[in-house]
Amino acid sequence: MAAHKISLIIRREYLTRVRKKSFIIMTFLGPLLMAALMIVPVFLATMSDIGTRKIAVLDDTNWFVGRFENGDNLRFSYVVDDLDTLKKKVFEGQYDALLYIPATQLNIPSNAELFSNKQVSLNMSSYIRNTMRTEVENKKLLASGIDPELIKSAKTDINLVTIRMDKDGGEKKAFTEVDVALGLFSSILIYFFIFIFGAQVMRGVIEEKTSRIIEVIVSSVKPFELMMGKIIGIALVGLTQFLLWVVLTIGIYGIFTLAFGTSPDAQMMGTSGTLMTQQLSTNQQVDSAAVMQVFEVIDSIDFGVVIFAFLFYFLGGYLLYAALFAAIGSAVDNEADTQQFMLPVSLPLILGIVISNFVVNNPDGSVAFWLSMFPLTSPVIMMVRIPFGVPYWEIALSMTLLIGGFIFTTWLAAKIYHTGILMYGKKVNYKELWKWIRY
Amino acid sequence: MENFLEVNQVTKRYANHLALDAVSISIPRQSIYGLLGPNGAGKTSLIRIINQITGPDSGSININGQPLKPHHIGLIGYLPEERGLYKKMKVGEQAIYLAQLKGVDKATAKKRLQEWFEKFEIENWWNRKVEELSKGMQQKIQFAVTIVHQPELLIFDEPFSGFDPINVNLLKAEILALRKAGATVVFSTHNMASVEELCDDIALINKGKKIVEGKMHDIRMHYKSNIFEVILQDLDSVKMSQLSDNFNVQKTEQLGENIQKLNIQADAEAEHNALLRQMLAIGKVISFREVLPSMNDIFIQLVQSQNTKPNGSA
């Protein structure tokens, strides 16, 4: 009977929210925004490289004549003319840009001016800057009797491969950046999930109070059943939205790949690749080695553990906080009054997200350890640590504590909720809440 | 089984006050029972305990001869004073949901609700959102939802607030029909006129204590002050003046030419017939009746007399 009633409540909470326009809009907008974040930069990069730019070079120092190489996108012509006449030509569209390198007193050029009608691309300006720097450096080296080629050959790039050893002698290539990205991304996702859907629980409770339906319902079901039904129903809404986002993002990504014949990743790597060829070609090998390493590390991450932990902390953190949010909702008459209670409840989470940036630097430190055990911060902090590899006993302990914390906050919240939902027109303070808990 | 619901020595204490102090009431089967009392007397606390929304600190409740248990929720239909509906939900869907929470299966709930909606002439609101409806319309839906699971005990807390006079009459007729069909009805209200009209039994609660309980007629008889209302025609003014020697004429009122209404207070032992005989001598008696105090007067008198006592005991 009771289980049947809870399932009725869950069904209502779920269906009324999933059918809302705002849910449907967010479901489609979310992946579009995410996809836009990936696609737009690539798209813009592709757009800006279309067409060739003609650049007039007015070199008063005569150092750089013939030094700028014509590439696919950039064509340099060396001119000798009056600066103002040339500016006018740029203005009329004869050239896309004018590079003016004025003579200096010491005759070592250190500055230059680039005139153009439109904003110059980053590609163009960085190519010009690099070429000039290399040229000046080489000249300086030659002047002091050093062969620039010697310097070039002496330059060495170290590819540091970090390898993590585990107890049973296995070795894993570690690449901190990947761990950091994965950890921070999942912890931020959990953070937002808790806040967005926790707030929905709170608003749902306030809605039942202000519409005065609450007493009708609690004469049919226990307040605890209503609270849990709401929390579980909204959790399912969150999971549905998350799942749809994943599916839709993959879908949009797939469509993009088909439409452009290449994936956004490859595009991005391609663009940065060409950029680098134009610069220091030696770096490219290192870079591709690094890319290879990233893939190796991604392979080495234990995704079973990461996904399981993510889902666990995703739900565990939500359940823990949702109960508290429900308690807040029950204690007030409208949303404006929630402020005083929201701060202390959200503080541990915000603190967790702030500290997570330090935790990535020292994922095994004692701060990281204790915060990943404390149930109010563990969903955020433990997710940052997990990609770096956390002993199983620590994960197990943290999860047990989180379950314990969830039971405790739910018990506490149920006490407040039970009294709060039937209390109208009373400004509630902490002293009052404490009384309710002791009833 | 005489009583459908028995509340025995129920006490409920909140942090700073005693809401119910050893209250016992018995609600006869198939009666309409008025639970009266000023604001804050403890009526809602008692109703919430009967509905198992909160539990008593001590005391017990029997329903239909059994100790009150969670599964009895389905026996009770409760229309709280603070009532409302989900504003964004459709009327029909919401009514079915609330009926399902009371343990009615979906198909039955739909069938019964549609019957009620037809009876109340609100069937074309089925697919409208609650927020589009007027307060009176919402109250009708609420009433239908309260009785859809065919409860044996109905508890109405201020049921007529928010209704216009036409709908109040509709509601009264429904309540009487439900009683006739076997339901026991508990009424909590300040509206003494409707209490006098509907209730068989009443209990008056003040400051968490029961002051009086019983058949309404018995209570009114108990608190009567032997006042008689007589309407006379062509009265003899000499004999009339003699009347004042034996009786206390409280009020005279000229109703028309040669017609007067008198309010006469007699001694407690005074014989109705003796008084009537005296009246016959004075003039032509058009009507003669004993005035029973209104529930309103009894209510005010009892509450005030209790409030003036220092420790509030009756």
Keywords:
heterodimer, A: 439 residues, alpha/beta, D-Maltodextrin-Binding Protein, domain 2, 2 domains, four-stranded mixed sheet, two-stranded antiparallel ribbon, 7% strand, B: 314 residues, Rossmann fold, Alpha-Beta Plaits, six-stranded mixed sheet, 10 helices
Proportion of helical residues of chain A: 55-70%
Q: Give the low-confidence spans of chain B.
A: none
Give the overall shape of chain B, derived from the CA principal axes: elongated
Helix-strand pattern of chain A, N to C? Answer: HHEEHEEHHEEHHHHHHHHHHH
The average pLDDT value of chain A, as a whole number, equals 81
Specify Rg of chain A, calculated over alpha carbons.
31 Å
Strand order within the widest beta sheet of chain A = 2-1-3-4
Helix content of chain B: 25-40%
Q: What summary fits the major beta sheet of chain A?
A: 4 strands, mixed
Looking at the overall shape, the CATH architecture of the largest domain in chain B is: 3-Layer(aba) Sandwich
Name the chain pair with the biggest interface and residue counts per chain. Answer: A-B, 25 and 28 residues
The first-level CATH class of the largest domain in chain B is given as Alpha Beta
- What share of residues are in beta strands of chain A? 5-15%
Main β-sheet, spatial strand arrangement of chain B = 6-7-8-3-9-10
The proportion of strand residues of chain B reads 25-35%
Domain count of chain A, please report it.
2
